[in-house]
Amino acid sequence: MSQKPQSHADSNAGHSGHHGPKYLAHHFFDMAQQNASGKLGMWLFMAQEVLFFSGLFLCYAAGRYFYPETFLAAHELLDWKLGAVNTVVLLFSSLTMALAVRAAQTNNRKAIVTNLLLTILCACIFMVIKYFEYSHKFHLGLLPGKYFSADVASLGLSSVPADFAPGVFFGVYFIMTGAHGIHVLVGIGLMIWLLMRAQRGDFNSENHVALENYGLYWHLVDLIWIYLFPLLYLVR
Amino acid sequence: MLFDFVKIGAQGDGGTLFLPKQASTLAANQDALFYFIYYLCLFFFVLIVGLMIVFVVKGRHKGDGSPVKTSAVKGNHTLEVVWSVIPGILMVVIFGWGFKDWVKTVVTPANAIDVRVTGLKWAWSFDYVASGVNSNRLVVPQGQPVRLTMSSKDVIHSFYVPAFRVKRDVLPGRYTVMWFEATELGEFSVLCTEYCGTSHSGMLSTVKVVPQEEYEQWLADGGDLGGAGVPPAELGAKLYEAKGCNACHSLDGSAKIGPSFKGLYERNGEFVDGKSYVADDTYIRQSILEPQAHIVKGYQPVMPSYQGQLNDKQIAAIIDYIKTLK
Amino acid sequence: MASQAGTNYLNAKKGIGSWLYTVDHKRIGVMYLVAVLTFFLLAGVFALMVRMELLTAAKDIVDADTYNKLFTLHGAIMVFLVIIPSIPASLGNFLLPLMLGAKDVAFPKLNLWSFYIYCFGAAFLIYSIVSGSFDTGWTFYTPYSTTTSTSVISATAGAFILGFSSILTGMNFITTIHKMRAPGQTWTKLPLFVWAQYATSVIQVLATPVLAITLCLLMIERVLGIGIFDPAMGGDPVLFQHFFWFYSHPAVYIMILPGFGIISEIITINSRKHIFGYKAVALSSVAIAIIGFLVWGHHMFTSGQSEFINVVFSFLTYAVGLPTAIKVFSWVATMYGGSIRLTAPMWYALSFLFLFTIGGLTGMFLGALSVDVHLHDTYFVVAHFHYVMMGGTIIAFIGGLHHWWPKITGKLYSEFWAKVGCFFTFVGFNITFLSQFVLGSKGMPRRYYTYLPEYRDLHVVSTVGSWVLALGLFITLFCFLHSLFKGKTSPKNPWGGLSLEWETETPPIEHNFEGQPIVTSGPYDFPEIDHAHARGH
What we know:
The complex is a heterotrimer.
Chain A: E1 4-5, H1 31-66, H2 68-74, H3 80-105, H4 109-140, H5 166-200, H6 209-233
Helix pairs in contact in A: 1-2, 1-5, 1-6, 3-4, 3-6, 4-5, 5-6
Chain B: H1 2-9, H2 27-59, H3 77-106, E1 113-120, E2 123-128, E3 134-135, E4 138-141, E5 145-152, E6 157-161, E7 166-170, E8 176-181, E9 186-192, E10 205-210, H4 212-220, H5 232-242, E11 268-270, E12 276-278, H6 281-289, H7 312-324
Helix pairs in contact in B: 2-3, 5-7
Chain C: H1 16-20, H2 25-53, H3 64-100, H4 108-130, H5 144-147, H6 152-179, H7 192-224, H8 237-271, H9 278-291, H10 307-335, H11 344-367, H12 369-375, H13 379-409, H14 415-441, H15 456-486, E1 517-518
Helix pairs in contact in C: 2-3, 2-4, 2-15, 3-4, 3-6, 3-7, 3-8, 3-13, 4-6, 6-7, 7-8, 7-9, 8-10, 8-11, 8-13, 9-10, 10-11, 11-13, 11-14, 13-14, 14-15
């Protein structure tokens, strides 16, 4: 027999009475293995997210390929100033998120809490601005697909192409920003949970993978917006 | 059962065990590749399963308690290279062969007859571009290429003639092109091979291959549905079958997807919006051309428009036919 | 020693709650197994009804719309609820940590979540069935799926949710394989089942999100009509097919690769030999996973997509065939010079080789551009993918279930009845589907409710075959049930396997191993191997 179970008094062997390091789950050898697993799992999740959004970007590309002039004309109906403010807000939130992770590595619990709060605040500002953008569009009838009900002539567009299909543009707009917005909302929920844990003192230089992983997620959400903003608001 | 199996192989359709009769210029090449792959597969199948059986029979564990020794072989690079490279080469050959014949199927000869094909739930309609003749079956001359420019009214269909070895999807909102040159006289099945709903399997037609003179005469008569020398009600009966009315409208009074044609003429009824109607000529004409304008109570708004599918003479013939169905 | 004699994962904790809230990969695997087998039974009943209807050319037992719903449900349930989760989520979940000498998968709670997400997605599909069902075919092609009046939304929502279950399982497995291997267990000492699971998981993580977004877009198209897929609004229905097959072709490998892994295990153990060409077999799984992403267009040769792209896809299709061929040759060569034990699992492995070889070789017809024009969307395709999916994956799954049944339940089953079940399944399967190859090459299109009279005889053969196949599967089911209630207790290692799952108790204890196993040699270095007469290599 080649493989032999090692039955010596390994510290992780007995489960019922096992007390390893405080944050170590029962099925890992040590913190290094646990942290490495957590990080790998998160990167795989990131890969999955990228492919999910790649489908949406392909959908955008198809829409723009079918209706180049519509996309050019309809982008005037989006307020690029609000989009730009949101971009700055999200970029800033990425910074505070990174600072929160850094604070955990330096055992600065107060800084973790402050920076997380700032990140949550930014995320909320983003969603509030998004809410105003959306409600304005609903009000005007700038709705996706067959529900588009605005009077095109009264919108004050600089030019209206012959095959103007604003329903397609707003379909793509609402799907993409909607999927992104759901990610921001989920992010806010997760940050509140992280904030509670941070106040409890869960994060320190030994145990900060959860925070770091969340940081990865938040940066990805930010990054997707960086692509969405020019693609939708700044069509040339 | 085995007897039947063999009979199918040699049945009167002029085909082989696996393939139907060859009736177009494209068929022979495709079949040659089919049988090339077939014998290749048969060879490898016999090799693999044969060796498997030999190894099992030779190496079978007797269970008599004698000490068992097995081979220590873990691999053999030469053998592994051989069984990667040889199938690889064969696959490239198959690919190249398939590619060569594929090019022939997509490049239409210059002297082709142009026919527009429309697929709709659940019937085929053919329009001869040069003569304007409309038909529900394809009649083509032997030995001359025919180009089909195809489009769908509703969902995706696929135009398939097994005897010609041709198939192409028929899409709504765009055109696909396909060609063939029939070599054999006779009637061949046209099938729909892209799932399109309730009567997908009923979406059948035929290609009739005729000599050149007969083809020209047929065109001159305005095709099957031209109505040359046929009483209108009789033409209407033909159209009822040909245009797929029969898929949804019965003749015996039973309600199918749409109301029955029996006793329809001058019937009083009610629409879903509560208004009443009398099924007169105008009503029937509008029902054919703008089926969504009024929906009869108890039915779904599913009928496609026959605008452009039927000319005035044909619509009149259908009305006359319905008048006969008391 | 913490655990007492006779305590194992099945009886360590009692009560329904100890199952529903468990994070033990073994119990989650068993729950998946029960769910998958239940849906297999349901989809099998639908298949029998489809075959029954096709007994004659005209209407028999159901009307056309019901028939369309039956084949749609058969396909959708088999793909999304049975075959995709079958091996990875049940046997994979149970075995992967055991084979790696780990106490659990890397993320046990996530594992339980993915099971409940599976149940949630399944509930949507079931809801769709009871609320009028759907008739789009499992492929959901637009614009049919955006215009049909049946309940497409809940069905696609179900498939969408099931996708996330699959993604989470894949992430969990990749992390587990990378980070949880026992000391000494290098990548070349992994059992091939683990390699196959690894390749599968990569596809699950990378392809499934695209299915999710595709189904999302389909639902949005149906509800809002944004005009991406529907030509009536300027969209492109072929774009949907690209989206769909970008996932659904790799999904074919999600289905078959774990089957390859099982066959590698069964053949080596029952031949008492090292696998022939370990690296080729292991890496060909990875090669298939990668190239499998580049061949989706071969489902669309006649769809009207660009002619140039057809040529590229045809070429790449043969490129993905090659690693598959290498695997088959390696399995056969593994048996050379072995001491073959014809156990029930080995019967299934040999059946697999027979059936999968047919399934793989008939793919050569369909990859050739010119021949595919004739065969596309006919019964030839139906027979081809049933030989791969049923003759390949399901046969491997049932074989694997026989192989690890003692490990899972601690019970032995009747070898005789298991082999009788295998025999009828094998014979019935061949009668059912060999005849469909001929039907297809003769021109019989798929998804037909009625058919032309010349196809009748072969349809009769196929339907009779489906009864024999069902008989075989029911014998197998009763054989398992009998074992569960009346079976003899299994010894610890009934097959003499060397991979780590056989090192622990049978059935395993709650935390898999007493102490950490250490690996010093490969999983196929059987003691019967005659090293004294080793030649070459």
